[in-house]
Design goal:
With 675 residues, the protein is of the alpha/beta class. Among the domains are: 216 residues, 3-Layer(aba) Sandwich (Rossmann fold); 81 residues, no CATH class. 31% of the residues lie in helices and 14% in strands. It has a ten-stranded mixed sheet, with helices on both faces. A hairpin with a 2-residue loop joins β12 and β13. The radius of gyration is 25 Å and the shape is globular. The C terminus is likely disordered.
């Protein structure tokens, strides 16, 4: 098995004598109060600084502080000149740069490429406080401010752009962000292990350009050491068989070059498939990709944190508040997670459109029960405004805590993209009784009135432990529970790598049964994706008919947004299916790209909105389904049009993106909107 140096076992750097800062400083005045003459590391972020373990820069800053390093934060700097980037002085070791908790382009633009008016990670929710492609812009300003200081980039924006990637906003394939930012190194994924090792090595005097072997990093490649084997995977030809699992650690897979994937969508899909196949820390190989005259080298993913390490990360001395410089300004993203507790990381679902697995990995990293309980007690005793209601006890997926492969050796050698698709792997332990015990212990704490589960729930796993569903429904649902079938039709679901509606129906039966037994009136909120690659108009029509039959009227809908590096984005760009081996004569996909078709697919989800009726009537006639136009219960849309509706049908802007998914539908009771 792979092993790593525990992140809290390093000898602390000498400034540890200063002790932890109340807040990591954002000004020279704060540095002076702490007795610092300089910072060892300066972190630059596109988010406001909230000292809370749900905010990446706070986590990285506190982790480095625990190693003894002096860390300052420059949050949402003015990027028009270098003044803000100089406010803390020259860092002794490096600048750490991130776009924030979200990719800056996803943060600023809707799935229809419209500019959002707000930003949940900014005081007052104000938009426009970060630049497009923030990692590139911030890195450039850091370089201008202090030319000789190394730059380390990370966070989700850098992580998902680590190789040549399709960029939805420019509709082209862009180079690795490492090269475009001119940074010295890129750390991908949740990077505590990599950033701790890197910082200690730099502090010990090791030159940045000599650090080439760091797991979870991307560097400009200087050539393979003796004993390594390079495998050419730059074409669609079959790869040579590996010599053995032990040899994989010294094998480098050469992906198609940037220029190749830029010009050939099939090779882009091929490279995307290879990247995802090489994502298991237990067997991933080093990846190489040529960009012009230079190679980038993607080292294997970081070794996941152990439970004691993750406990240590979450129990650092966070204030759990926005920095005092913001006064009483409301930061929407903080308000959403203010009274929530994160219990785990990662997701083994592998949904093709989602970036969680790509960024955090599919091996679940668990906190201990005791650590979680201690954080609830801290929340209860120290966070202003807490009324006894824990808003969420979850994570990327609410019910994957402590789920894992039954055999570490099987897990280390596995190359599946998902542990639950096309069905739940027989090697996956699905017992959720430990989670039931955690829920019971959490809600029994003095001063805790209610513990809600608001994170997305994997219902195909939930039904494997009926007692978990009973516990959840009886005690932890606040009237509504959101889940994500995403679609009803087999074609789109297979490309999303999501379970069929049979799992949904089984879960709904349990949900309704246990709600009745508890004497509660509760509803499921299913949400769906419009315009996903491989989805035809007929698929969306069938989904709309299912919604009407089941009395659902979605209030807000999401259209597919091709995020960098996602397998579904490769489908969108290439029209091919990278879930299978890519061949030029292989499976092709219908991809809803045009604005009118994307609006139509969203209109099917909001079939009840009069603004969409003209567009839907036109489509139904074209599809030969005019029988669905009329004023009876069997019809999808009426034949009449209310006065003052229907102009610009289906063209209203999408709802603003939030840091966590919000409820996407409203249940219907008795044919009328309930509540």
């Amino acid at each position: 098995m792979l092993t790593a140096t525990p992140i809290f076992s390093y000898r602390k750097y000498w400034p540890h004598k200063f002790g932890p800062a109340p807040f990591l400083p954002m000004s020279r005045a704060e540095m002076d109060e702490l007795g610092w003459d300089s910072c060892d590391v300066v972190l630059v972020t596109g988010d406001a600084y909230v000292d809370h373990p749900s905010f990446g820069m706070a986590v990285i800053g506190r982790v480095l502080e625990a190693q003894g390093f002096r860390v300052g934060i420059i949050a949402q700097p003015d990027w028009n000149d270098t003044a803000d980037f100089c406010r803390l002085g020259r860092p002794n070791l490096y600048f750490g740069v991130t776009g924030g908790n979200m990719d800056s382009m996803v943060n600023r633009y809707t799935s229809d490429r419209r500019i959002r008016s707000d930003d949940a990670y900014t005081p007052g929710g104000e938009g426009g406080k970060r630049p497009d492609r923030a990692v590139l812009v911030y890195s450039q300003r850091c370089r201008e401010a202090y030319k000789e200081v190394p730059i380390v980039i990370g966070g989700i924006e850098a992580s998902l752009r680590r190789i040549a990637h399709y960029d939805y906003w420019s509709d082209k394939v862009r180079r690795s962000v490492l090269l475009d930012s001119k940074a010295d190194i890129l750390l991908y994924g949740n990077a505590e292990r990599a950033v701790v090792e890197l910082t200690h090595r730099l502090a010990a005097g090791e030159p940045m350009e000599q650090i080439s072997d760091l797991r979870g990093s991307v560097i400009v490649h200087q050539g393979l050491a003796e004993g390594w084997r390079e495998i050419d995977a730059s074409s669609l030809d079959d790869l040579p068989a590996p010599r053995g699992e032990r040899d994989r650690a010294h094998e480098a897979l050469r992906l198609p070059a940037y220029e190749q994937v830029r010009d050939d969508p099939a090779l882009y899909a091929h490279a995307s498939r290879l990247l995802h196949l090489e994502s298991n820390p237990g067997n991933a190989r080093t990846l190489l990709q040529r960009h012009g005259q230079r190679d980038i080298r993607v080292n294997p993913p970081p070794i996941p944190l152990t439970t004691p390490e993750l406990d240590g990360v979450f129990e650092l001395p966070y204030q759990r508040l926005p920095h005092s410089a913001y006064g009483d300004a409301r930061i929407p993203a903080y308000e959403m997670i203010r009274f929530s507790i994160n219990i785990m990381r990662g997701c083994f679902g592998g949904c093709s459109f989602c970036s969680i697995t790509e960024h955090e990995g599919r091996i679940i990293q668990n906190r201990s029960e005791d650590s979680i309980i201690r954080e609830i007690e801290t929340l209860r005793d120290s966070v202003p405004g807490f009324t006894g209601h824990v808003s969420d006890l979850g994570g990327p997926t609410a019910n994957m805590w402590r789920l894992h492969c039954k055999d570490p050796q099987i897990e280390a050698s596995c190359r599946r993209l998902s542990c639950v698709y096309p069905g739940i792997c027989p090697n996956l332990k699905t017992d959720q009784m430990p989670l039931v015990r955690l829920y019971r212990r959490a809600r029994s704490l003095p001063g805790i009135k209610k513990v809600f589960i608001a994170s997305g729930l994997r219902y195909d796993l939930a039904v494997e432990t009926p007692e978990y569903v009973r516990e959840l429904v009886t005690h932890h649902v606040g009237g509504y529970l959101k889940i994500a079938p995403e679609h009803t039709e087999a074609g789109p679901l297979s490309l999303m790598m999501k379970p069929g509606m049979g799992s949904y129906d089984r879960f709904k039966q349990m949900f309704d049964k246990y709600s009745r037994l508890a004497g509660k009136e509760q509803y499921l909120i299913p949400y769906f994706i419009a315009a996903h690659p491989g989805t035809g108009d007929e698929d969306m029509l069938n989904l709309a008919l299912w919604l009407k039959q089941n009395d659902f009227r979605p209030n807000q809908v999401q259209a597919f947004l091709p995020s960098p590096m996602a397998l579904a984005s490769a489908m969108y760009h290439s029209g091919l299916n990278p879930l299978k081996k890519v061949r030029r004569d292989g499976e092709t996909l219908a991809v809803p790209k045009g604005g009118r078709q994307r609006r139509l697919h969203k209109a099917f989800l909001r079939y009840h909105d009069p603004e969409n009726w003209p567009l839907l009537r036109e489509a139904l006639k074209r599809m030969g389904r005019a029988d669905l136009i009329g004023n009876g219960k069997k019809h999808l849309v009426p034949s009449f049009q209310p006065a003052g509706t229907g102009s610009g049908a289906g063209q209203r802007p999408a709802a603003s993106h939030q840091p966590k998914r919000v409820s996407r539908a409203k249940p219907i009771k008795g044919g009328k909107r309930d509540r």
